[in-house]
Q: What sequence folds into this?
């Protein structure tokens, strides 16, 4: 079965999406809708930057979603579609649209509000995030337990069996990062302003749940997998509930990809800029049993 994976924050670069925009009217329409709904100069941010403005959470969430969905619509125009869809963190909103759960206009309403709330909480309750490479989840959980003596720290993204992102208050998270280093891990501080997918995002999550009540969710037309449950979800009300929790919940990417593979997913295609998710899947699944590729310029693809 064919799987479309949509990337999230961290995959952006200045110039992203231009190839799809230049070659497909369907891609142009996505950018037009994004700009109309958000009031932001999405094309200019994506194609010209500057990087500092593009990377602002408030701007980046709709901008990256526009790029993902412009590429998706270009693929769809060539009758190249998935049976299964998923996305990493912000990328899950692209998956919602591609599964037919929300409309194009509503997906941009959602990511605009999500970006606004997450940026607000990052300013109110600043935090840090670190990628920890080389420790098992169990070992890292033990370290986090100890580090919680210093404050709030949590597991944010379980990206591969030995690449896990931690998140939380600055003192507690940097202390946990230090302990992980002592235990032999490689530790990389992420260039983010907030402690995303942590309890510091609780107020953003509450406000987002209120906003979600206004947005109609429909039954998925493709198999949709959730970051929060790591399972395929069919009930639109349950999907809406999970999307409300996602801001402050860990991304269970390893379990999600393993469950997609168990459900028959074999042809994994990253739809969006860069190859972050392709790299993660290589470290989760037996590569000899799957095919993996990234599609960023649909005009160059042969289907």
A:
């Amino acid at each position: 079965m064919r799987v479309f994976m949509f990337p999230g924050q961290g995959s952006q670069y200045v110039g992203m999406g231009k190839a799809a925009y230049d070659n497909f009217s369907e891609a142009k329409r996505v950018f037009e809708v994004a700009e109309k709904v958000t009031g932001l100069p999405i094309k200019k941010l994506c194609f010209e930057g500057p990087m500092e403005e593009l990377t602002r959470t408030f701007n980046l969430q709709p901008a990256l979603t526009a790029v993902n969905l412009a590429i998706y619509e270009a693929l769809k125009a060539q009758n190249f579609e998935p049976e299964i869809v998923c996305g990493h963190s912000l990328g899950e909103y692209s998956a919602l649209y591609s599964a037919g759960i929300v409309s194009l206009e509503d997906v941009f309403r959602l990511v605009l509000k999500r970006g606004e709330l997450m940026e607000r909480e990052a300013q109110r309750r600043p935090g840090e995030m670190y990628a920890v490479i080389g420790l098992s989840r169990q070992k890292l959980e033990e370290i986090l337990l100890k580090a919680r003596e210093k404050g709030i720290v949590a597991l944010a993204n379980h990206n591969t069996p030995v690449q896990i992102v931690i998140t939380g208050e600055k003192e507690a998270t940097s202390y946990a990062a230090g302990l992980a280093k002592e235990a032999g891990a490689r530790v990389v501080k992420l260039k983010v302003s907030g402690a995303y997918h942590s309890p510091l995002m609780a107020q953003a999550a509450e406000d987002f749940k209120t906003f979600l009540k206004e947005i109609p969710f429909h039954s998925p037309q493709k198999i949709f997998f959730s970051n929060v449950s790591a399972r395929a979800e069919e009930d639109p009300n349950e999907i809406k509930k999970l999307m409300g929790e996602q801001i402050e919940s860990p991304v269970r990417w390893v379990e999600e990809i393993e469950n997609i593979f168990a459900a028959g997913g074999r042809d994994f295609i990253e739809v969006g800029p860069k190859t972050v998710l392709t790299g993660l899947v290589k470290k989760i699944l037996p590569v000899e049993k799957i095919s993996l590729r990234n599609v960023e310029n649909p005009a160059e693809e042969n289907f």
